[in-house]
User: Which sequence fits this backbone?
């Protein structure tokens, strides 16, 4: 398996920030009440992760081991501030919605985790690729979570899309008369849906493992016979 | 975790500190940290400088759009954003921070006051409001600028979240004054007043209704003084 394929597989599935490592749950639970919010914060996170992995990897020769954590935090915080300013300048409506959660990307431990575990030991290209892949792993999970919560909670998808693309409309999936299911939008709904998603991933992994074992056993038997 | 990728370049990780006194090593480390701090502070400062005109323009545009929602542009012909006065924190408006009040004029005559207010008693915290009160004592319109009401339940006070797009809840305040809706009727229907509320989410509606009534009261009481102040001046409550 090539190194890029392995990094992608790790980021998207095997070491998925949320489903496997359960990192970065604070923004995940707070922002995933609608799909648009969730995906927007996810995209900002991809940007920060790619940039910070790239920057740390480039600068890793200059960072003494003893002070690496403060320097990493400094780099991440500076990049998040820059992303925050850019959002404020060019995507103001979304900036108002995401509010405190963009600065909070600094505290998303997945960013620091990848910088420490990967970028500090690998070349800049690989590191940026790893950051982006981990970020995509974050965005698909948070996007799916947002979509499920929004669908169950309000019966719509993509509500608030006009904040990013003016003129576009939310998709009303269930009839207008759908009364809504409040708990899906409130924080407990995030925990419940996320729990089910993790269970689903574990089940798929379990099934794959069982199949691999059965295949191995069959091979051994075939070889023995 | 990623043992497949070998450490290629010279990482200082796991290398023992260079020879020399502990003092020299700490001084070197401190200098490196200082250098990083300076470089990244400089980077942030330059991005800030680059984006700040755009951010200012965006905020101004957002303000103009918000004012446009409570007061149509045709209602005035002065430079609204320039014809502003400072308001000190005011308990009557529910504000604990200074804000600005804009005076709309047409042909030099007072047309409307545009200002912010807040309802302190929303279901979850403050509800920020923007109002326009016409010189004839009518409330032109009111809009919610910020709130944390429950999504899907109490957030219909914000017309963007209101499912009834044709006549959102908040539109019922437009054009009202104290002659067609007496002061004591300025409540939600559940409390015996004149304004609708949604079943199951009365608190949000009650908070907005009460705050709107108080703000209208305040604007009528101070209207003459507010229109008379020179632009940029600070309004002090004269009688207490």
Assistant:
């Amino acid at each position: 398996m090539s190194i890029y394929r392995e990094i992608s597989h790790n980021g998207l599935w095997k070491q998925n920030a949320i489903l496997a490592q359960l990192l970065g749950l604070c923004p995940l639970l707070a922002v995933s009440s609608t799909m648009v919010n969730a995906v927007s914060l996810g995209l900002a996170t991809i940007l920060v992760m790619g940039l910070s992995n790239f920057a740390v990897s480039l600068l890793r020769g200059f960072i003494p081991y003893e002070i690496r954590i403060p320097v990493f935090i400094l780099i991440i915080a500076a990049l998040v501030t820059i992303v925050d300013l850019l959002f404020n300048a060019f995507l103001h409506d979304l900036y108002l919605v995401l509010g405190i959660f963009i600065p909070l990307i600094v505290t998303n431990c997945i960013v620091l985790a990848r910088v420490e575990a990967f970028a500090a030991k690998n070349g800049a290209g690989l590191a940026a690729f790893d950051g982006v892949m981990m970020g995509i792993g974050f965005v698909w999970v948070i996007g799916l979570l947002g979509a499920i919560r929004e669908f169950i909670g309000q019966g719509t998808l993509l509500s608030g899309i006009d904040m990013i693309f003016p003129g576009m409309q939310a998709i009303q999936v269930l009839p207008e008369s759908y009364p809504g299911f409040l708990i899906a939008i409130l924080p407990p709904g995030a925990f419940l849906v996320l729990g089910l998603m993790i269970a689903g991933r574990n089940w798929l992994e379990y099934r794959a493992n069982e199949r691999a074992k059965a295949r191995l056993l069959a091979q051994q038997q075939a070889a023995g016979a | 975790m990623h043992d497949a990728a070998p450490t290629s370049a010279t990482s200082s990780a796991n290398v023992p500190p260079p020879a020399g006194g502990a003092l020299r090593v700490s001084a070197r480390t401190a200098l490196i940290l200082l250098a990083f701090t300076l470089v990244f502070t400089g980077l942030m400062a330059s991005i800030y400088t680059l984006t700040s005109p755009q951010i200012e323009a965006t905020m101004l545009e957002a303000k103009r759009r918000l004012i446009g929602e409570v007061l149509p542009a045709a209602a005035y012909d002065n430079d609204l954003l320039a014809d502003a006065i400072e308001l000190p924190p005011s308990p009557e408006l529910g504000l604990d921070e200074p804000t600005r009040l804009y005076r709309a004029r047409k042909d030099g005559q007072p047309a409307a006051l545009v200002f912010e207010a807040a309802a302190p008693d929303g279901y979850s915290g403050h509800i920020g409001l923007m109002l326009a009160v016409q010189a004839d004592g009518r409330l032109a319109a009111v809009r919610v600028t910020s709130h944390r009401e429950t999504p899907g339940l109490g957030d219909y006070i914000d017309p963007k979240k209101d499912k009834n797009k044709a006549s959102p809840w908040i539109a019922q305040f437009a054009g009202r004054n104290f002659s067609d809706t007496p002061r004591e009727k300025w409540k939600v229907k559940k409390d015996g007043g004149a304004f609708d509320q949604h079943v199951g989410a009365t608190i949000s509606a009650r908070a907005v209704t009460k705050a709107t009534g108080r703000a209208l009261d305040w604007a009528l009481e101070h209207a003459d003084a507010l229109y008379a102040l020179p632009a940029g001046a600070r309004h002090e409550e004269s009688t207490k």
Residues 1-13 of chain B have pLDDT under 50 and may be disordered.
